[in-house]
Specification:
Elements (H helix, E strand, L loop, with lengths): L8 H7 L12 E9 L7 H13 L11 E5 L4 E6 L3 E8 L17 H5 L4 E12 L5 H9 L6 E5 L4 E5 L8 E7 L4 H22 L1 H27 L4 H46 L2 E2 L6 H92 L1 H4 L3 H35 L1
Parallel strand pairs: 5-8
Antiparallel strand pairs: 1-4, 1-5, 2-3, 3-4, 6-7, 6-9, 7-8
Helix pairs in contact: 5-7, 6-7, 6-8, 7-8, 8-10
Length: about 425
């Protein structure tokens, strides 16, 4: 059967199969970098990988759509992954020297090519994977006990391996030593990948901590300013004071909203990264070694408080924004009520003026009736004088009789016109 395929079906299905772990067998060396993307030159990374293809004599260059590559360089193997904010470079090789001699996977990689990787390093790690018979875990534990630094030692993978680290940076790299007792190649690859992801995502999550400190200073000042504005709003004596408070409140709201917009992504990303760290720690299946902290315990003591601070600052920022919005709404309501009161006063004054104009108009209409009656009676008088020979009547009597008739006709006509205009105005209003 043939069906119309969704254009993203294959891509979404392939997404769950991307970034597979590299099977590893002890002994092995792993060197790892995470580089923040160079936003000024987004194509530089792929161009640099293309240079490695040419240098290694590889026939196929990477696809422009590829977000995951595994490159066989002969003496080493490179796994490259592109993420949202960073890209990772993981180098694998077999050791040439004995264990614990300081050899790293970078010794097999062209140093100038590694030095030219674009972007900024946010995480760099060396991992030494040792076979169970090559070194005694108990001896390593004893050696770690003589060091002054806090060391993390634990059994992982359901007690199938040991991990040693201190999460400190030594000569630019954090270091992990893993002793494989009974994991197997695929499981070892997954465990090493989990350790590298924990190291990367814990640092990426902590990028929000300096932002939280900076925002905290802004929030302290903004909260004090909001309290002062509320006091001014309560004591406002006239509309001018209220409008001045509203202007300052609007300016404060804009400042806080700018902070929310500029930090929302960082705080959200920190929460997502910390969630990944927690899940990867669960995947390690740690067992505590007496007298030493586990990776989980270290993260709970050192990483969790910082991330909790970031979450608290984010909530505090959102809460302040909501409080400013409520205060602004309350002040706008007060201003609107005052404007309505002023509008009512204006309307009342206009109503009084309309009544005065109506009375004046009625007075004018009365005078108009008198004037029209006067001119009408004069016309009647002229007509009576002109036709005196025809009717032989007294013109003064005719004029006197016509005056009430003319006044009545003028008054009736004026009233009719007023009713007609009122009827037309009511019809337009409907």
């Amino acid at each position: 059967m043939e069906f119309t395929q969704h254009p993203l079906r294959q891509r979404l299905n392939d997404e769950v199969h991307t970034r597979p772990p590299i099977p590893l067998e002890a002994p092995a060396l792993v060197s790892y970098f995470a580089f923040i993307h160079d936003e000024t030159n987004p194509v530089s990374e792929r161009s640099h990988i293309g240079m490695l293809y040419e240098r290694m004599g590889l026939p196929v260059e990477p696809s422009a759509e590829a977000a995951h590559l595994i490159i066989d360089g002969g003496a080493f193997q490179l796994k490259w992954e592109q993420h949202g904010e960073f890209s990772t470079y993981t180098f694998f090789t077999r050791p040439k020297q004995a264990a614990q001699t300081g050899e790293t996977a970078l010794d097999a990689v062209p140093a100038d090519w590694v030095q030219g990787i674009p972007g900024q390093v946010i995480a760099a790690t060396h991992v030494e994977l040792l076979a169970a018979g090559s070194v005694s875990p108990e001896e390593m534990v004893a050696r770690q006990a003589t060091k002054g630094d806090t060391n993390i030692i634990s059994l992982i993978a359901g007690q199938a391996a040991w991990v040693f680290t201190d999460f400190r940076i030594h000569e630019g790299f954090s270091r992990f030593t893993v002793i494989d007792e009974s994991m197997g190649k695929l499981r070892t690859g997954r465990i090493i990948q989990r350790i590298l992801e924990i190291e990367t995502y814990r640092v990426m999550a902590l990028l929000a901590f300096p932002v939280a400190k900076s925002v905290s200073k802004l929030l302290n000042r903004a909260e004090a300013q909001l309290a002062a504005l509320i006091d001014r709003m309560v004591s406002a004596a006239n509309p001018q004071d209220e409008r001045a408070v509203l202007a300052d409140l609007t300016k404060l709201a804009a400042e806080v909203e700018h902070s929310v917009a500029s930090t929302n992504f960082r705080f959200g990303a920190a929460a997502a990264y910390y969630s990944i760290v927690q899940q990867r720690i669960v995947d390690l299946k740690e067992t505590r070694v007496s007298g030493y902290p586990t990776i989980k315990g270290f993260m709970e003591r050192r990483l969790a408080p910082a991330l909790n601070t970031c979450a608290a600052i984010s909530r505090r920022q959102e809460d302040l924004s909501a409080r400013i919005a409520r205060t602004s709404q309350l002040l706008r309501t007060r201003v609107d009520i005052e404007l309505e009161r002023q509008n009512q006063a204006v309307l009342s004054q206009m109503n009084r003026r309309a009544k005065l104009q109506l009375r004046l108009q009625e007075t004018v209409e009365g005078l108009s009736v008198v004037v029209l009656t006067y001119y009408g009676s004069q016309l009647v008088q002229y007509l009576a004088k002109g036709s005196k020979e025809l009717h032989h009547l007294n013109t003064d009597v005719i004029t006197a009789v016509s005056i009430p008739l003319i006044a009545g006709l003028v008054a009736w006509g004026t009233q009719r016109m007023r009713r007609k205009l009122a009827a037309e105005e009511g019809g337009h209003a409907d």
